[in-house]
Design brief:
Layout: E1 11-16, H1 21-36, E2 45-50, H2 56-70, H3 78-86, E3 88-92, H4 101-107, E4 113-118, H5 125-134, E5 142-146, H6 154-165, E6 173-175, H7 183-194, E7 207-215, H8 224-228, H9 231-249, H10 258-271, E8 280-285, H11 294-297, E9 308-313, E10 325-330, E11 337-344, E12 362-368, E13 372-380, E14 389-397, H12 398-401, H13 412-422, H14 431-451, E15 456-458, H15 466-473
Helix pairs in contact: 1-2, 1-13, 6-14, 9-10, 9-14, 10-14
The structure holds NADP nicotinamide-adenine-dinucleotide phosphate.
């Protein structure tokens, strides 16, 4: 299959926090890869900004090191890298001060897209927006990109939204959720809305339940102090799992346009039912061999923050009446995997006897590892022995479907940054979506805080606490296996 990379318009991209971990690990290597793929125009320029006292050549050296660290050697072309580095510059700026802003303004060229990536702590978002306005860089050509976490609760998210809205229109604000940049997530929309096959079955008449799992094998070591103020509910459910749930549950938008899609997602969040305390299980990983416990990692021996959460919720509308949505995410689990599974109901009448009623169609959308979509269908087990049934996947793995070019599929950050330059907000969260998600999350957290809830411990490398298994067993259902 011939790769169809369409170059974006010329741009100046400023990365505030351009020397930080995210910039070095994801943003800059991602930009390099887009250039190598031929998507970045020759006139594109990237400017790093931070407080550190370095000059352009020091910054280029830092970025060279980052690219050589975070991109495999055989995927780096020396000439392309040199030419990428030539596009880089650096400005010393303290977001809280007035120094350096005029230098930055002088570097911005007119007649092209101006994108400002806020890869700094959220406490600096408001002041960056304010300074950009003050130094005359918040005009209609400007776009700002903000990172997670977007707020700690509804009140702080509103305050953040207000601080950005004071200087930028909503159409200029790109709130990143990198889950939305994944190839499979977009394919989920293509599969749902580009085929006639699924829509008639996409409702409570045919769907038994939906499971969304995001399992990690790593603990919180290294960012324990940050994580301990957050927990799995704020760090994962309120944003990533919620976004996945929206895409799977939303009504077909009238067109594939940013506001049409986001309007539908918002309706889903607003229709989510409150979570009953007995429909939610919180967990914390325990010591395992020489591996530290969550409390060790968080350096907080009394921490009640959850590193695991499993919950059941419903969407109160006609399509999803009676269909439970089970969400589960955690650290130090058996395998690293992200999956959305749509489990369909059994056939209404089995002509093959009792045993066949256990067979279900399952649509599995895998985000990692091996991004792809599998549809499990029931067939006859091959060979002699009568009519024995077995469930097998109709597999659609992108690497295979797209041929060798499939390997060049941009990663989430690359795709999202290019979307910013294109001015396409479809895969970015709108302010009202974020607030609605917090409005659902806040009472859940307030509930366990009032009750003094203590998370259940679970073994590292397990499926999470026993109670999480019971959440489904009680409903006569089972979690999908966590497999890498
Ligand atoms: P980091 O490694 O601590 O880097 C922070 C960057 O901000 C540095 O370049 C720092 O450079 C700069 N900075 C700090 N204070 C500043 C100020 N007053 N004015 C101007 N620049 C300032 O943080 P990070 O991990 O890259 O995270 C950046 C943002 O991305 C955060 O909002 C984080 O929550 C989010 N995020 C990060 C990841 C990740 O994997 N790292 C993932 C998702 C979201 P100086 O100290 O030299 O100024």
């Amino acid at each position: 299959m011939v790769s169809r990379v369409i170059p974006v318009d010329p741009f100046d991209l400023v990365i505030f926090g351009g020397t930080g971990d995210l910039a070095r690990r994801k943003i800059l290597p991602g930009l390099y890869r887009r250039m190598a793929a031929g998507q970045m125009p020759d006139t594109a320029r990237i400017i790093g900004a931070a407080r550190g006292e370095i000059d352009d050549s020091g910054y280029r050296q830092m970025v060279r090191d980052a690219i050589q660290t975070f991109i495999p050697k055989d995927a780096i072309d020396a000439k392309t890298l040199d030419s990428f580095l030539e596009r880089l510059g650096y400005v010393q700026i303290d977001a809280k001060g007035d120094g350096g802003w005029s230098d930055l303004k002088a570097k911005m060229r007119s007649g092209m897209v101006h994108a400002f990536y806020f890869s700094v702590a959220p406490s600096l978002f408001g002041t960056l927006a304010e300074r950009l306005h003050k130094f005359d860089m918040a005009g209609p050509d400007a776009r700002i990109v903000v990172e997670k976490p977007f707020g700690h609760d509804l009140e702080s998210a509103r305050a953040l939204n207000d601080s950005l809205a004071a200087h930028f229109d909503e159409t200029q604000i790109y709130r990143i959720d990198h889950y939305l940049g994944k190839e499979t997530v977009q394919n989920l929309m293509a599969v749902r809305f580009g085929n006639v096959l699924f829509e008639p079955l996409w409702n409570g008449q045919y769907v038994d339940h939906i499971q969304i799992t995001v399992a990690e094998t790593v603990g919180v070591g290294g960012r324990g102090a940050y994580y301990d103020r957050s927990g799995a509910m704020r760090d994962m459910v309120q944003n990533h799992l919620m976004q996945l749930l929206c895409l799977i549950a939303m009504e077909p938008p009238s067109r594939f346009d940013p506001d049409a899609v986001r309007d539908e997602k918002l309706k889903v969040i607003r229709a989510l039912t409150p979570v009953e305390p007995h429909h939610l299980v919180r967990g914390q990983y325990d010591v395992s061999g020489t591996e530290p416990s969550y409390r060790d990692d968080a350096e907080n021996p009394r921490s009640r923050t959850e590193s695991f959460i499993a919950l059941k919720t419903h969407i109160a509308n006609w399509r999803w009446a009676g269909v439970p949505f089970y969400l589960r995410t955690g650290k130090k689990l058996r395998a690293r995997t992200s999956e959305i599974a749509v489990i369909f109901k059994p056939t209404p009448h089995s002509i093959f006897g009792e045993a066949s009623s256990a067979h279900r169609n399952i649509l599995s959308i895998r985000l990692q590892p091996n991004e792809g979509i599998e549809m499990f269908v029931t067939i006859k087990e091959p060979g002699p022995g009568g009519m024995r049934l077995v469930d097998v996947p109709l597999d659609m793995s992108f690497a295979e479907a797209l041929g060798p070019d499939g390997e060049d599929v941009p990663d989430a950050y690359e795709r999202l940054i290019m979307d910013v330059i294109r001015g396409n907000q479809t895969l970015f969260m709108r302010g009202d979506e974020v607030e609605a998600a917090w409005a659902w999350t806040d009472p859940i957290i307030a509930g366990w805080e009032t009750r003094g809830d203590v998370p259940k411990t679970y073994d590292a490398g397990s499926n999470g606490p026993e109670d999480a298994l019971m959440l489904l067993h009680r409903d006569n259902r089972r979690w999908r296996e966590i497999r890498g």
